[in-house]
Amino acid sequence: MSRTTRRHFIKISAVAGGSFALGARSTTLFAQKFVKPLRILILRGSGFSGPFQVRYALRRGHNVTVFNRDKRHPGELPEDVEQLIGDRNGHLDALKDRQWDVAVDNPTSLPAWVRDAAQILKGNVDRYVFISTISVYADTSKGVDENAPPAQYDGPDAFKETLDAMKASGYKTYGPLKALSEKEAEKWFPGKTLVIRPGLIVGPGDETDRFTYWTVRIDRGGEVLAPGTPTDPVQFIDARDLAEWTTRMVENRETGIYNVTGPAKPLVIGDMFAGIKTALSSNANFTWANPKFLKQQNVQAWSDMPVWAGDEPGLARTNISHALAKALTFRPLADTARDTLAWFKSQLQDRQSHLRAGFAPEREAEVLTAWHKQQR
Q1: Which CATH number applies to 3-375: 3.30.70.580, 3.40.50.720, 2.160.10.10, 3.90.226.10?
Q2: Considering the entire predicted model, what is its pTM?
Q3: Least trusted range by pLDDT, from 70-74, 170-174, 263-267
Q4: Residue 58: Cβ within 10 Å count
């Protein structure tokens, strides 16, 4: 699997659908801080992280407006949220002649989307927050900080790119177009742009099922196929932690570029599995298969074995010291595991029967059988 394809499994979390009702627990260290109420526009307040941003901002006393394509998910958002309807592909009239203190741009993958929205919002919005991705970096083989060079776009006119064309390319243009989108945001809001580059976003509501797969599989118990070695690095961030930190950064009028993933200290996949097992009171036991064998079995990192970076460990060694210095915090792994599993079990049975990442039980059993046979 190519680096671009693996990056696809990171990047879609920023625009994945679904949500999970945000419970009473939050980052309590910050929950009661008095802040001046802001008028916040959230471009795509539905989806994965958007509803968490909305609810946290409301609890902090802010006035929230969301801009979505429709109201198909009324249960995701509180009634006192103003909902504007439109589309980033040229249907932005609902944004005209309005004023907000800050706009948070969640879904943008194309620089034209930034340009078109900015032409309307410039002068009516004081600051702009662009949710990007660590996939913007040209080379993540050894881990990166915010100063690493971005990927370069080498296709036709970037402002004529479409999501269909990006998909047709196997998402090879995703990182470069995100990098151009960052530049476009800074062009229209010079010195007033906050760029957030998340890694793998996980938690309740993640429709891609990457981290979710492991909670479901470990909860089922028994022998679990585990990739690589227990000391392989992993990184991810709960969507709620990302949403809450983004809101606090908005309150503090922060600008600049930040890598945002977690946890605060290095984590290895063996400890991640052990933490999930303990949180779910599972009887799972792990059989670790080496990368060479997995390659022979056509087992892919990120898709078949989600969260695991495989032969690209640098993807799980992104430097987040800049964000930590701005009080990026993380809820316990156990909370993310339990909440993610509870959300998944609340879905319709048809949804539960079709995990979108990881192995089907039959395929896992097949690979485990081949592994044990090789060890004889």
Answers
A1: 3.40.50.720
A2: 0.90
A3: 70-74
A4: 17
